[in-house]
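Box 3.1. Reading complex inputs
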Amino acid sequence: MKPKLLRSLAALRRETSAWRREGLTYAVVPTMGAIHSGHTGLVAAGRERADRVITTIFVNPKQFAANEDLGKYPRDEEGDVRKLGKAGSHAIYLPGPQDMYPQGFSTTVSLAGPAKAGLEDKFRPQFFDGVATVVAKLFIQTGADYAMFGEKDYQQLKVVTRMAKDLDLPIEVIGIPTVREEDGLAKSSRNVYLSKSERQQALAIYRNLVNAADRIRAGVNPQTATRSATRTLMALGFKVDYVSARNAETLAIPQHRDEPMRLIAAAWLGKTRLIDNIPV
Ligand code: AMP
């Protein structure tokens, strides 16, 4: 399938209005490009839910801090279009900065709750305000019925779900399980930064999460299990931002053994920051 490329808000609105006139439902898949099978999995899930899928590609400057990788974030429009076409995305919205942040733009969505859980927010303070602002705009601009988000970015999924609910945005946010490499490493656009040996080492994050989850299920205290996962990762050369057991819904620190729990981790391997999470 050859997806329709929509390079402006006006082009997007023409397409989605036509879908509405035909009585079609549609799902949006927000991405920053560098498309891999994690993203195309969201497209496939969107196709199961809705008549049409629109993928958005926008490397959002507002969610990068000055010292982060905005300038070198991988970009490959031609490859992205090909992969998204193969996955069956009906349209691709490629807004320019003028569509998202025109001159004089001065509004930011301000968040609490899961956005202040002390995980990503602690290490990337402006990240979720940037994400929420661009995602709110994409929800409003597309007017989609469904939004597909990966569990890979678990805190982001909870933040965006909460925001849509709190602001009465008429869209259903749907979380999709993480797509992994054969050995278990979570697919990520940032994996291309890893050297060959780092790629081998990177798997330790997932392995240690799985191991900690097994231990918690076997009765070990979540804090004990996550602390020892942290120590193991540090001994392997990771700079660990956090490994934490959280309530799977609120992201608060669990108070009871029988709460639904999620193990969430972020760690640096050399110059690359990796994140992952799994259910307990
Ligand atoms: P990104 O372009 O990396 O910001 O991600 C765009 C969307 O794809 C987000 O909803 C991510 O959670 C999702 N995503 C990224 N990697 C994966 C993966 N390995 N499995 C499932 N979803 C993913």
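In summary: The pocket of adenosine monophosphate is lined by residues 31-32, 38-39, 41-42, 149-150, 152-153, 176, 178-179, 186-189 (CB under 6 Å).
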